[in-house]
Each structure stands twice: as structure tokens, then as C-alpha cells.
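Renewal narrative, Specific Aim 1. Our central claim is that a sequence can be written position by position from structural information alone. The example that follows is taken directly from our test logs and has not been curated for this report. It begins with the C-alpha cells describing the chain, in the order in which they were read.
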């Protein structure tokens, strides 16, 4: 009888401990995702408010920003130089998140998001890195979404630019 009670108590303790571990792991992951979500929201808000300092403080020192134009592949300093006049004029850009997926591990996270922008719906994707206990954007790619039914039209529209850039890049 004593052995049976001991086994049941042991199982109950083990079950409680297991539930606690699962709950803690889930809440920890959820907390990390909430932090990442807040960084991305604050980054977009800083641009909408033309707050240059806040915007670039949310990026790592060696961050990369890839814009919608094929020539826009900037390190942080290059992107800051491009963006400064826009922020100084009080009109950076205003992106509103429509959907966002976040995936994270201990020190890295990656995401994709659909954004409402002045260019219509765009897709943002990127990587965040945990540095000094804070999540920062290390790599961001902004793409204009094109419905499949319009790809041929857009391809024809940009053909001249693409051919010229292809020729230039092949010479390098």
C-alpha cells in the first residue's frame, strides 16, 4: 500500500514538474517572440516618426539593408547616408505590419512580414541577433510584392534597366 501511494505521489510530482518545464519553455519562447515583435514594431514606428537615432539604434553595427531596387544593398553606414535626408525632411517611410511570422533560437531570430506601404503591399524579411541581451536587426530585405498575373508586365517594364545592370555586373 505504501509503495502504491509513493508511486502515485512520485508520478504526480513528475507530472507537475514536466508541466512546469513545458510552461516555462513556452512562456520563455513567447517572451522572446514578443521582444522581437516589439523591436520590429518600434523600428517601423521610428521611420514613420522620422526618428533617425531610434531607427538606427535598433540595428546591429554591421547591419545590412537590401531595398527594392537591385542596386540597394547597403551596409549600415551606407543606408544611414541614404536615409538621413529623408529623416531630416521629416518624411522617412511609413510601413504598417499586416502579418508577421517570427522564428527564434537562442541568439538569432528570423522573420517575414507583409507590410502596407506607399508602394502597396511589400514583404519584409530579415534576421535579428541578440546582442548584449537586446534583439537588434542584423539583416533586412524589403521587396515589392507582385501578383503572379502581373509578373510578365512588370518584367517587360524593367527589362531595359535589368539588361543594363546585368551587363555592368558581368563586367565586374
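The sequence written for that structure reads:
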Amino acid at each position: 500500500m505504501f509503495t502504491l501511494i509513493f508511486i502515485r505521489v512520485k508520478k504526480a510530482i513528475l507530472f507537475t514538474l514536466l508541466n512546469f518545464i513545458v510552461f516555462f519553455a513556452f512562456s520563455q519562447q513567447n517572451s522572446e517572440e514578443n521582444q522581437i515583435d516589439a523591436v520590429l514594431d518600434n523600428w517601423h514606428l521610428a521611420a514613420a516618426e522620422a526618428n533617425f537615432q531610434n531607427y538606427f539604434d535598433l540595428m546591429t553595427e554591421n547591419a545590412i539593408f537590401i531595398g527594392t531596387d537591385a542596386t540597394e544593398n547597403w551596409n549600415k553606414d551606407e543606408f544611414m547616408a541614404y536615409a538621413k535626408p529623408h529623416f531630416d525632411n521629416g518624411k522617412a517611410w511609413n510601413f504598417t505590419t499586416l502579418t508577421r511570422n517570427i522564428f527564434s533560437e537562442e541568439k538569432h531570430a528570423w522573420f517575414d512580414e507583409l507590410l502596407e506601404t506607399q508602394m502597396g503591399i511589400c514583404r519584409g524579411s530579415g534576421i535579428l541577433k541578440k546582442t548584449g541581451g537586446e534583439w537588434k536587426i542584423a539583416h533586412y530585405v524589403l521587396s515589392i510584392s507582385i501578383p503572379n498575373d502581373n509578373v510578365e508586365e512588370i518584367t517587360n517594364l524593367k527589362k531595359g534597366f535589368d539588361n543594363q545592370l546585368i551587363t555592368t555586373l558581368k563586367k565586374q
